[in-house]
């Protein structure tokens, strides 16, 4: 299964791709920097490719080793959205399937938007990182699944590099109530990541929740005492199957992450509570969808589920509830057309099992749907 190019990336991942990355970092709270290295295990997809190109964003690259030896490298001009391409020379005469280790030594700068330093709100100071469409705290060859390990956590399960999370190891994490996972596993394949922790961050955390593999970040504003906002936790948990399991090939297919997650989140609300909870959640979402469609009335391209981004166009410009709500309603429509939950949920389990640990496009999903109906 071949994947299309990523309009928000300058990396040559179609020629040589990262299948594993190991991070060795020093966190300096006084200077508010991360420094150290990212070691990529690369595999050739095209024979005799002589260079690998990484995406970087506001990084000070200091040195590069290829299989332990100093290598030639250069950092290209900075694009406003895609950042600066880091090009590293590779040995010649390599065949498809050959592997090599590339270690990039670098440190972050004050312009690195993926890092959030919370020294005034938390004692001791706290750092969190979020890797999104075109920004991250490390050199990246793509947003496609890759295993990752760091000083604070280790994962041998393939997951998107965009789900990389960073927190100090001294923080106490909370375990998700078992009934959430147990209920999810009644309709989906078994949870893949071994553990699932929840970290409540200070109020300045800019999202309601963030679905890092194994570890969900949450805003403290969800802690209202009566569990009425538990749907956010269920949403982030569901990303373990949709987003961190079956992953969008690029931002054009963002709805595969968020539409599916929102749809299954509401199925789980029905199983955990009542069908009325599911229905009410769709009603609330309908208002948000109407507002988002009105927001992009002058740019209907951003009202679509599948957005044909131009090269270098910022995917965040199209960010709204459209992929969440329009995607979830589309899947609800399919559920009803195909015979209801009893008929649709077995297909959902089969879909996740077929593509878990892989990046796909909407066309890949459609072919699988048509083949199974």
Automatic annotation (TrEMBL):
The cofactors it requires, by name, are: Zn(2+)
Q: Which is one GO molecular function term here?
A: metallopeptidase activity
Q: Which residues bind Zn(2+)?
A: 235, 239, 258
Q: Which UniProt keywords apply?
A: Cytoplasm, Hydrolase, Metal-binding, Metalloprotease, Protease, Zinc
Q: Which domain of life is it from?
A: Eukaryota
- What cellular-component terms does GO give this entry? cytosol
Which SUPFAM superfamilies does UniProt cross-reference here? Answer: Leukotriene A4 hydrolase N-terminal domain, Metalloproteases ('zincins'), catalytic domain
What Pfam families does the record point to? Answer: Peptidase_M1
Stored Gene3D superfamilies: 3.30.2010.30, Neutral Protease Domain 2 (1.10.390.10), tricorn interacting facor f3 domain (2.60.40.1730)
Q: Kindly identify the residues recorded as the active site.
A: 236 (proton acceptor), 324 (proton donor)
Residue ranges annotated as compositionally biased, kind Polar residues, are 151-165
Record note on cofactor: Binds 1 zinc ion per subunit.
Where is it localised? Cytoplasm
| Main location as per UniProt | cytoplasm
| GO biological process per UniProt | proteolysis
Residue ranges of region Disordered?
A: 128-165
* Domain Peptidase M1 membrane alanine aminopeptidase: start-end pairs: 181-370
Q: Where is the composition biased (Low complexity)?
A: 128-150
Its family? Belongs to the peptidase M1 family.
Q: Return the protein name.
A: Peptidase M1 membrane alanine aminopeptidase domain-containing protein
């Amino acid at each position: 299964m071949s994947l299309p190019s990523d309009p928000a990336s300058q990396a040559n991942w179609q020629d040589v791709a990262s299948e594993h990355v190991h991070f060795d970092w020093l966190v300096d709270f006084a200077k508010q920097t991360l420094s150290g290295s990212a070691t990529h295990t690369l595999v050739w997809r095209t024979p005799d490719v002589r260079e690998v190109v990484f995406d970087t964003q506001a990084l000070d690259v200091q040195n590069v080793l290829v299989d332990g030896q100093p290598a030639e490298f250069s950092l290209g001009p900075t694009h406003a959205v895609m950042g600066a391409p880091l090009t590293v020379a590779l040995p010649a005469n390599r065949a498809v399937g050959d592997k090599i280790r590339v270690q990039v030594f670098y440190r972050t700068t004050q312009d690195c938007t993926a890092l959030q330093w919370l020294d005034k709100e938390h004692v001791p100071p706290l750092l969190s990182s979020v890797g999104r469409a075109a920004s991250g705290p490390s050199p990246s060859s793509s947003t496609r699944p890759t295993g990752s390990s760091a000083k604070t956590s280790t994962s041998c399960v393939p997951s998107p590099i965009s789900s990389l999370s960073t927190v100090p190891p001294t923080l106490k994490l909370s375990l998700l109530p078992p009934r959430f996972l147990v209920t999810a596993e009644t309709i989906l394949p078994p949870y893949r990541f071994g553990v699932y922790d929840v970290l409540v961050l200070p109020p300045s955390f800019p999202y309601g929740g963030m679905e890092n593999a194994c570890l969900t970040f949450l805003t403290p504003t969800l802690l209202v005492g009566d569990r009425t906002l538990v749907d956010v936790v269920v949403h982030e948990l569901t990303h373990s199957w949709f987003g961190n399991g079956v992953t969008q090939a690029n931002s054009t297919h963002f709805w595969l992450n968020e539409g599916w997650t929102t749809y299954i989140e509401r199925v789980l609300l029905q199983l955990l509570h009542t069908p009325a909870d599911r229905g009410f959640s769709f009603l609330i979402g309908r208002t948000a969808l109407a507002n988002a469609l009105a927001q992009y009335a002058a740019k209907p391209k951003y009202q679509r589920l599948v957005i044909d981004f131009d090269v270098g166009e910022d995917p965040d410009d199209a960010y709204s509830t459209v992929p969440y709500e329009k995607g979830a309603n589309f899947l609800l429509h399919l559920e009803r057309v195909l015979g209801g939950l009893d008929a649709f949920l077995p297909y959902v389990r089969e879909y996740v099992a077929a593509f878990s640990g892989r990046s796909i496009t909407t066309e890949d999903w459609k072919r699988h749907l048509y083949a199974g109906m």
